[in-house]
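Journal club side-thread
Mid-discussion, someone asked how the predicted structure for our own chain would compare to the paper's figures. Pasting it here so we can look after the session.
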Amino acid sequence: MTAERTSHIRPLVDAGLVRRLVDTQFPHWSALPLELLDPAGSDHVIYRLGKELSVRLPRHAGAIGQARKESEWLPRLAPHLSLAIPVPLAVGRPDFGYPWPWAVSHWLDGEVATVEALADSTVAAVELAEFLAGLQRFEAGAIPAEDVSEHLSGGSLADRDRSTRAAIAQTDGAFDAVAMTALWDAALSAPGWDRPPVWFHGDFHTGNLLMVDGSLSAVIDFGGLGIGDPACDLIIAFTLMSAGSRAAFRAALDVDDATWTRGRGWALATGLNAYTTYAAVDPRVAQQTTRQITQALIGR
């Protein structure tokens, strides 16, 4: 069944289903207990399997390619990166009415990174710059063009133009519509990436960073992994950092003005999308996205 035909499917995933999937496809893990991780984000249902493993099952068709993408690429990327990333162990097949591939990986300990803990940390900002630099240095030139277009394309700001302008109009009053429009126009008109395409994480925000004892420890959720313009990964500068740590991050990554402006555009567009979708029903998302949008408008 194609992603287009399953675009509206939201399968019911519960412990009984996950238990059956694991026990029949990976019986060597059948004795390990399952524990639901809640909340686990909008893309996957996540169960901890024993102490060392996690099971991740897509909630919707937009996330169905992640298991195979991570299984193929994360083991190759890991040796080049300065922070831990997931270690894929197996990709499960659809069964028992569940329609998509799913994944088993090593469990990564840690708490989700927070603004309160890391916003003013130049050490953390430089660590994140080093992680992205390592990702960008990984050889991207040998990937077949059809793989990039089908599996590793990250889209563009222009693809988000209509939805972003609609969100600007929708949130006028909560935020400065004139300032948002000016930033969005600047991001769209900024010169594009004119160097060879590089790897990007594609969803580089606080929810996908882990910390242990107040220090960064891991980067997770590589569903947006792709090759092209790395400006989308600059979102982290506006979701996590303050002005001082943001300056350290930009200097360490050596970001030019055009890429920085496009990065601000990505932060605005993704922040508005999350705000208009979730803020009314989730105060945590409202707080996070309000900060992301206002920091993107500040820009420095």
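Post-session note: The chain has eleven helices and ten strands.
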